[in-house]
Sequence to fold (136 residues):
Amino acid sequence: MFTSSRFLFLSAAALALAACGKKEEAPVAVQSDAVVATDAAAASAAGPTPGVYEVTDAAGKKVSTTTINAGGTYAQDMADGHREAGIVKMVDGKTCFDPSGKAEPECYTDSARAADGSFTATDSKGGVVTVRPKAK
Fold:
């Protein structure tokens, strides 16, 4: 007659032998939507990518050359000759430029970047500009 401990031992041994005959495949890593959203949020929290950018309007006319610094500041040399500077940061997934002085911040919804690093930015009124990293 089998005792319960002997039964458990034999069952465990049978399972172990059965497992030896199978080659276990490595699990496939699948990135969940939650992980993608978290990665996007982390990128947004990090702020806009530092660099120098050429900004053009829908007709291809130069609007400005914008420099974004690693410290969260920016400077824009506008095509009409004036210069604007201030703080740039991400707010609710939008890139927001907050100029020094009394001017209100202007926020843009950025498209995904193309292979060359360019993207479009849409302001709150629906105006669209194209932003391209400036060659060094």
Observations:
- Residues 1-45 have pLDDT under 50 and may be disordered.
- The CA atoms of residues 8 and 123 lie 69 Å apart.
- The two ends are 84 Å apart (CA to CA).
